[in-house]
Amino acid sequence: MKYPLLGTVVLVLMCTVYAPAQVVKSSRPASSVSHPARKKVTEPVAAPASVAASAAVPNWLPSTNPVQPSATILSDLIDTKLDVRFDWPKQWLLGVATLTVRPHFYPQSQLVLDAKGFDVKSVELVNASRKGKDLKFSYDKKKLTISLDRLYQRTEQYQIRIQYVAKPNELPKGGSEAITDAKGLYFINPLGTDKTKPRQVWTQGETEGSSCWFPTIDRPNQRMTQEISLTVESGQKTLSNGLLVSSRRNPDGTRTDLWKLSQAHAPYLAMLAVGDFAVVSDTWRGKPVDYYVDPAFQYTAKRVFGNTPEMLEFFSKKLAVDYPWDKYAQVAVHDFVSGAMENTTASTFQQQLVQFTPRELADVTYAASESVIAHELFHQWFGDYVTTESWSNLPLNESFADYSELLWAEHKYGADAAALVQQTKLRNYLDEAQTKREPLIRYRYAEREDMFDRHSYDKGGRVLHMLRNYVGEEAFYASLTRYLTHNKLSTTELAKLRIAFEETTGEDLMWFFDQWFLQRGHPELRVTHSYENSQVVVHVQQVQDTLYQPVYRLPVTVATWNGNQPTEHRIMITKADQTFRLAVNQRPNLVKFDDEGILLADIDETQSQEELLYQLSHARGYLQKYQAIQGLRAKSSDLLVSSAFRGALNDPFWATRVAALDGLRRYRGAEGNAVRKDLQRIAMNEKNGTVRATAISVLSSFLNEDYSEVYSSALKDSSYLVASAAVNALAHAPTPATRTQLAALQNTNNPALLTALSNYYGLNGTLDDYQWFLQRSKDAPAEVLYVMLENFGILMQRIPPIEREKGIQRLEALARTHPQLYVRLGAYKGLHELIASMPTLKATLQDIRNKEKDGNLRAMYSLIQ
User: Fold this and answer.
1) Phi, psi angles (nearest 5°) of residue 860
2) Which of 199, 594, 607, 775 has the largest CB neighbor count within 10 A?
3) Residue 772 and residue 743: Cα distance in Å, rounded?
4) How far is the C-alpha of 77 from the C-alpha of 408, rounded, in Å?
5) In terms of DSSP bridges, do strands 92-103 and 158-166 run parallel, antiparallel, or are they unpaired?
6) Cis ω before 485 (30° cut-off from 0)
């Protein structure tokens, strides 16, 4: 499962200039570093009650939540057969489910199934001749409790047939930040009245949404084979798990497709999708690989999904476990409630992630599409083939899928691309860790959806990166092969992963798994070095709050450079305050702690300007170059520094060029004319669109300077990202021709350009642009609305209050009812912009806050002043 906001993040990246985050803080003199007092110990210990009571509790320490054990298994699902059709006007599923079940160990005379919001028509015991015997049952709209005809032993299978109607729209509102709705079955534009969307129906099972459309035991520690028979209109395409084994036309003009999955999987991985899809076919080793997209995108589908066969080959060889299923399909659906979902053999994607016009493809980076494709594909091994036994162990699914994004980037695009993934993912986790620190494997949580966070994904992936580096490449993949083969088609927990690594390497790895999977937090390191008597003295302090986090055992590499030659020194940090002496022949030009960027840590490393300049010119990869640029930014006016940044503008990796450009933002040094010429040259001639867009953004930081010719040219650029950067630049420096130029762009559907236009009109618009906001706020995608609605409020500040009624009504309706949290937030912020001129809106905003059900959103409202 991907994050629900992933589409937003991707498209915001396409809307704004790329700005990698700093994850290692370098070059700060020791005297300037200020840390709050922290308890430092050499080993993790439990705090005495008196100490804990008197110490300040960090804001990231969660409240005590209930223990969440794995579900007790009374009965085993063996097979599920579904025969379903749809009532589109009512948005109902009409189903018959035939379940093959047996007691798990203890004899059973009762079967309890999850079945949410159904009309249950009948429940029958099916005998060998397929005849049914009515069974007594009770049903409370959540659980279907069936009284069997006798006591069954664990050696006896039996079949239950249930006729039912699923009514997902009548379920109570559910969902979370990770999965924005929980009704399992979704009809999109069922009546065909919305001309902007196709008619579709699709499902989303994780975490317990499958029981919203068929009766089952909706727990991850169940496994079942499956057949789904779908009766649909003749022109519709269908997709489900497994292979399409038959398709027949019916006398009433409908068609029935039968999909069969012959290997068992968890109920939450069951899926169906129906719609007017174009199916683009591919293959891998003779197995079908299909891409289901809107017909308008069938000619660009292979440019988005086309590396899937190569991914299948790469992952199969690396894992020494061939892709284990009969086929692999990927479908793009509208209004999906998460980023993507790894249904067995058939992953589902929100359409914004994978459907692009030919022009938009110029801006699609690895991070924007291939990363999520790799992520969901890797789940077919980690999550589907081997499945977490409980949501507490979710990182055994998600950490591996997250790490596959780095593995694929490394294989396909090289070490620099992998380093960029590593940097971005570490930043994501460290951002979340400011307000939340939990163990990766959490046996306590409030809601199961709480597990879908940057810990389970980004932190988990970084932990696997450290594990790979520690045990070595060969042992890492050999351990994964052992883990997959020993646990195939079954459930797993953390101990099984640890045992696979220990049996492979012969080493007791409890220390690693305990501190990284079972304890919260991360190391916060203060690192300094000096040169004494032919030795480099490295001083490392763990300054994290060890009242609630461990003192870590950290294997790390320190590189010392002389001339052009690095020497690597392996050290093991085991204490809160530790000094290491490294033998060298002479004073090094550079000392680099964690030189390959392996550690999951917040590192404050003191380096001199000379070292950072040396690092930038000699660095072996993107991460070190980026860190050097960040450390030198404060000195960008220095001639040596600006010359080094200008040199980095020619770096072969695009993200390094972006970092160097950003280092020259608002440059005021002696090379001013040369810098500006470089920026203009890059803005006009650079091949990479993200780099061109960054150059335009940096040019716009030079106030009172006229680069309107560059911006005007960029409005016609083949890249939407570049055109959007030009619109944003012109928003702060409009020319007499700008309004006419932008009028030609107003009907765009590209999210990046639409967002930029809303920024322009928010700052420069008049009453003439009011109708544009009213119209585009109806059809703009959610990720654009977040920005657009606040800009709408800013525009309305400049128009007469008597003209604002429709706009205020639009903002209020979206703030109260839009299904996406961030859209409601954007609408609220838009209304808030009008308080100064319309004080009566204070009561409206207060009422919106009081009636908002999401606690996180209410907290965000309270921060808006």
Assistant:
1) -65, -40
2) 607
3) 10
4) 35
5) antiparallel
6) no
Cβ atoms within 10 Å of 58's Cβ, excluding its own? 15
Phi, psi dihedral angles at 444 (to 5 degrees): -125, 125
Q: What is the residue whose two structure tokens read 């020319």?
A: 735
Query: What span, in angstroms and rounded, lies between the C-alpha atoms of 58 and 334?
Result: 41
Average pLDDT estimate for 836-858: 93
Residue 764 burial by CB count (10 A; 0-12/13-18/19+): exposed, middle or buried?
middle
Q: Transcribe 199-238 into DSSP letters.
A: -EEEE--TTTTGGGTS-B---TT--EEEEEEEEEETT-EE
Report helix, strand and coil shares of the chain as percent, to nearest 5. 40, 25, 35
Cα gap 34→843, rounded to integer Å: 43
Q: What is the pTM of this model?
A: 0.93
Query: Rounded to the nearest 10 degrees, what angle do helices 639-648 and 622-632 cross at?
Result: 150
The model's pLDDT over 558-603, given as tens digits with 9 standing for 90+, comes to 999 998 899 999 999 999 999 999 999 999 999 999 999 999 999 9
CB-based contact 301:280 (threshold 8 Å): yes
21 pLDDT higher than 70: no
Give the residue among 182, 206, 181, 219 at the shortest CA–CA distance from 68. 219
Distance CA 739, CA 636 (A): 36
DSSP state of 67: B
* Rounded Cα distance, 616 and 626, in Å: 8
For tokens 């249950």, the residue is: 120
For residue 94, the one-letter residue type is: L
Q: Which amino acid is at 246?
A: S
In sequence order, the β-bridge partners of residue 113 are 144
The C-alpha angle with vertex 45 and arms to 42 and 50, in degrees rounded to 5, equals 120
Find the distance separating the first CA and the last CA of the chain, reported in whole Å. Answer: 35
DSSP state of 516: I
Contact 691, 657 (CB under 8 A): yes
Cα–Cα distance measured from residue 120 to residue 584, given in angstroms and rounded to the nearest whole number: 78
Instruction: Compute the C-alpha angle 119/125/126, nearest 5°.
Output: 115
Residues whose CB falls within 8 Å of the CB of residue 226, separated by 6 or more in sequence, listed in order: 79, 80, 81, 82, 241, 242, 260, 261, 265, 270
Give helix 821-832 / helix 782-796 axis angle, nearest 10°.
10
DSSP annotation of 506? -
Helix (H) or strand (E) holding 685: helix 672-685
